[in-house]
Design goal:
Helices cover 32% and strands 31% of the residues. The protein is an alpha+beta fold and 222 residues long. The chain has a single domain, classed as Aminopeptidase (3-Layer(aba) Sandwich), CATH 3.40.630.30. It has an eight-stranded mixed beta sheet, with helices on both faces. Helix 6 links the parallel strand 5 and strand 6. Helix 6 crosses helix 7. It is globular.
Length: 222
């Protein structure tokens, strides 16, 4: 018990689940990544190459080779190690209990800053009808609640209108343009910096979406 208390003090909010919330496509929740996620992760990443490649950091080697199931175990080990030291909260996005993407809160800083960045991807078959927005809202509330963070940042290419809309819908505001910020698809790309602090939310992000009619109250029958 004492070891758990020490660990939770080092990485508050991890491991944990967040949700569920309901959108027209079904029920969305976040849960920790698992070692046995490898096969599903591989299938989704390979299937979504065209949707993800224009927006993600340049990797080494061909897309399908670096997203084989065998690549998941070492990646999971890194994610778990970063989570254990309190630098990251890596989640799977589930829709009706099925893995449909990932959401990560990373580069977590404590002390006087208490900040991190948030990033996500969602399978093309689960996009639309608020799945991504619900997942980001759950991530924001978890980061500001159990995660004890004060500020979240996100970076997005100016041409990624869908992701910008998701982030704005949850309350993120644009702070500026980062010139040639990241190597994406073998070119240095400009990115917009968006941010949100806990004081800017009048209520939780989920409750704000519920009031706006963007989420369905979870007690409502499908």
């Amino acid at each position: 018990m004492l070891n758990w208390l020490i660990d939770s003090a080092n990485h508050p909010g991890w491991p944990a689940t967040a949700g569920p919330v309901r959108v027209p496509k079904g029920t969305v929740r976040l849960r920790p990544v698992r070692l046995r996620d490898g096969r599903t992760w591989s299938a989704l990443r390979i299937r979504n190459q065209n949707e993800l490649l224009p927006w993600e950091p340049t990797g080494s080697g061909q897309w399908d080779r670096r997203h084989q199931s065998s690549s998941w175990a070492p990646m999971h080990s890194i994610l778990k190690a970063e989570a254990k030291r309190g630098a990251m909260m890596p989640f799977v996005i589930e829709l009706d209990g099925e893995y449909v993407g990932q959401l990560t809160i990373g580069n977590i800083q404590r002390g006087a800053v208490r900040s991190g960045w948030i990033g996500y991807w969602v399978d093309r078959e689960a996009t639309g009808n608020g799945v991504a927005k619900a997942a980001v809202a759950l991530g924001v509330d978890h980061a500001f609640g159990p995660g004890r963070l004060h500020r979240l940042e996100a970076t997005v290419q100016p041409g990624n209108g869908a992701s910008r809309a998701v982030l704005r819908g949850v309350g993120f505001r644009e702070e500026g343009l980062l010139k040639r910020y990241m190597d994406v698809n073998s070119r240095w790309r400009d990115h917009l910096l968006l941010a949100l602090t806990v004081e800017e939310l009048a209520d939780t992000a989920v409750d704000s979406l519920l009031r706006a009619g963007r989420l369905i109250p979870h007690t409502e029958k499908s």
